[in-house]
Amino acid sequence: MLQTILNRRSVRSFLKEEVDEQAVEALLKAGFHAPSAMNQRPWHFIVLKGEKLADVLAGSPNTPKGSPLAIVVCVDESLERFKGLGDSDAAAATQNILLAAESLGLGAVWSAVLPDSVPHYRKTLNIPTNVRPYSIVPVGKPAQKPEPTDRYDAAKVHWNSW
Ligand SMILES: Cc1cc2nc3c(=O)[nH]c(=O)nc-3n(C[C@H](O)[C@H](O)[C@H](O)COP(=O)(O)O)c2cc1C
């Protein structure tokens, strides 16, 4: 697991090959197994392929293009007991999906659903008003992957006190 965490990098260029169903299920399972505040599990996952994926990406300028598949991680705000915790839950689910992708030899990238793009996601994907798209994770076989880097920074580690 530690090696998976250390090796993971954002992948933004993909082979045309499909991601098989078993792998998609494993990615979703990883998302569902994330920790969540008060175990509310406020997430929904929208799996996108083909034309629908293209439609969504057309209104999401910051999201890398060219993957055969993407997963939109959404938060059901009606399950959010304290404002903001739903985003933390969705972040945990997003990271679990990235790590699962790495462990399956797939490439993935965490892409924000920026506030300006939320109406586009809602309309294109028919997302109900109590649910907010949080992130979109393009996934595929990597065409290119950055090398892992050492990011440990002793200057940002504080023992017992700042
Ligand atoms: C909250 C968040 C939002 C991000 N949004 C985007 C994005 O919109 N587009 C993108 O290409 N990458 C996005 N990234 C990926 C970061 O750019 C990337 O994780 C960072 O540069 C570190 O590189 P690495 O993932 O290869 O370690 C996002 C990452 C996080 C955690």
Account of the 3D structure:
- With 162 residues, the protein is α+β, with helices and mostly antiparallel strands.
- It has a single domain, classed as NADH Oxidase (3-Layer(aba) Sandwich), CATH 3.40.109.10.
- The protein is built from 5 helices and 7 strands.
- Strands 2, 3, 4, 5 and 6 form a 5-stranded antiparallel sheet that branches. The chain has a two-stranded antiparallel sheet with strand order 1-7.
- Helix 2 runs antiparallel to helix 4.
- It is globular and about 50 Å long.
- Bound molecules: flavin mononucleotide (FMN).
- The site of flavin mononucleotide has 11 residues, from strand 5.
Oligomer state of the chains in this structure: single chain
* Whole-number count of domains: 1
Number of strands: 7
- The CATH architecture designation is 3-Layer(aba) Sandwich
The shape is: globular
Structural class: alpha+beta
Largest sheet: 5 strands, antiparallel
